[in-house]
Known about the structure:
Blueprint: E1 6-11, H1 20-29, E2 33-38, H2 48-55, H3 71-78, E3 81-87, H4 89-96, H5 103-110, E4 115-119, H6 123-127, H7 129-140, E5 144-145, E6 149-152, E7 158-162, H8 166-176, E8 187-193, E9 197-198, E10 204-205, H9 212-223, E11 227-233, H10 239-243, E12 249-253, H11 256-266, E13 272-275, E14 282-284, E15 302-304, H12 308-313, E16 320-327, H13 332-342, E17 346-351, E18 362-369, E19 374-381, H14 382-397
Parallel strand pairs: 1-2, 1-3, 3-4, 4-5, 8-11, 8-13, 11-12, 13-16, 16-17
Antiparallel strand pairs: 6-7, 9-10, 14-15, 17-18, 18-19
Keywords: Decarboxylase, Lyase
Domain DNA/pantothenate metabolism flavoprotein C-terminal: 184-392
InterPro entries: CoaB-like_sf, CoaBC, DNA/pantothenate-metab_flavo_C, Flavin_trans-like, Flavoprotein
Amino acid sequence: MARVREVILGVGGGIAAYKSCDLLRRLQDRGYLVTVVPTPSSLNFVGAATWEALSGRLVTTQVWERVDEVRHISLAKQADSVIIAPATADLIARIAAGRADDLLTNLVLAVDLPILVVPAMHPQMWLDPATQSNVQTLRNRGFTVMEPEVGRLTGDDIGPGRFPETDSIIESFERVIEVKKDLLGKKVLVTAGGTREAIDPVRYIGNRSSGRQGSAVASAALSRGAEVTLILANSQLSEKEEKSLEGINVIRVDTALEMYTHLEIEFPKSDLLVMSAAVADARPSQVSDGKIKKGDLQSIELTQNPDLLKSIAEIRSGQIIIAFAAETSLDLEVAKAKLAAKGANILYLNDVSKGAIFGSTKTQGIIITSNGAQIEVPNTSKDALADLLLDQALIQLG
C-alpha cells in the first residue's frame, strides 16, 4: 500500500474555488497534510490568508516568492500527489500547452506524481472542442481528469461543468493513489521513545530507544485515516521524522509515571494501543536536588515502576493492544508467555543483542498474535513493519 501524506492542492481561478475550502478540510480529516498553491487569479475568489488559516501552511502563487527556496522544486520534492480543484478551462489549456507562468504550472512540470484534475466551468466552455482536446491531451499524459457534474452553475445555466461533490473528489483521488483508508473512524494511541528516571539534575536511568518505531506506527495509522495520539518519551528523531508527526496529537513525557498518567487518560478513548515505548523497569527511590559527587555515588536504591502495559490492559473495554518485546534472543516461548501475561493481542519480538535495532531505521523479528498467527519479519524498514502491525490489528478489530 502506497504511503501518501503530502498533498498539493492547486486552486484555479473559478467561482468553485470556495468549495475547495471544504475539500481541504476533508483531506485533513483523512490524515493528509495539504499545501495550497492557488493561481494568482484564484485569489479574487479565496484569499491567501484563508488558505493559510485553513492549511496552517505558507501560501505562495508565483515563482518569484520565496526564491531562496526555489519554491516549485522544494514543493515538488515534498509532495506525494497533486489535486487541482477547480481546474478552469484556462488552467487546463495552460497545463496542456506545457506553460509555466505561475507557481502552480511550474510545479506541475516539476513533479512526476499522480495528478487529479477536477474541472469546473460553464457548460459551453467544457464542451468546446478546444477544452475537450486539452482534456484528452492531459489524459494521454497520465493525468486523471474527472468528469464535471451536471447541474446548475452561476445564473440560471444548467449543464455539465459543475464542481463535483467533495466525497466524489476524495473517492477519485484515493482510487488514483491506491490508498486504503481502512482506519477511518478509529482512534489509535501509540507510545514511543525511552523513559528517563532522574538520579540527580545531571544523571538518569534510561535506555537506547530512539522512538523511531512508534513514530512510524503513528504516522502509518494517520495515513490510513485514524485519529492518532502519540505519547513520546525522549526520542532521537531526525528533523524529517519530526515533520512526519504533523497532524498527530503528540504528548511529550520524560518518565514512566508521566507516561502512565497520560495512558490512563487516553486509553479509554482509543480503539487500538501500540505500546512500543521502552519503559524503565525501575526508578531511583530518591532524586537528589543537587549533583551527587562522584565519590558519593556508590549505590542507588531503586523502586520498581508499575508495569504500564499490564496495568492499562486491566482497564480495557474491547481495545486491541500491540506489545513489543526487545530481547537478546528470539525465544518464542518467552514471547508467547509475555503476550499472555501482558494481556496483549499482538506482540512483536525482536533481538536487540550486539546493538541491533535500537537507533536504526531497519528492524527484523517475529510477530505473534493471540489467535495463533506467527509472521516472520525479515530485515525491513520500520515503516514497513508499522503497516504489518496495523494490518494484524485490523484483523483483530474485525
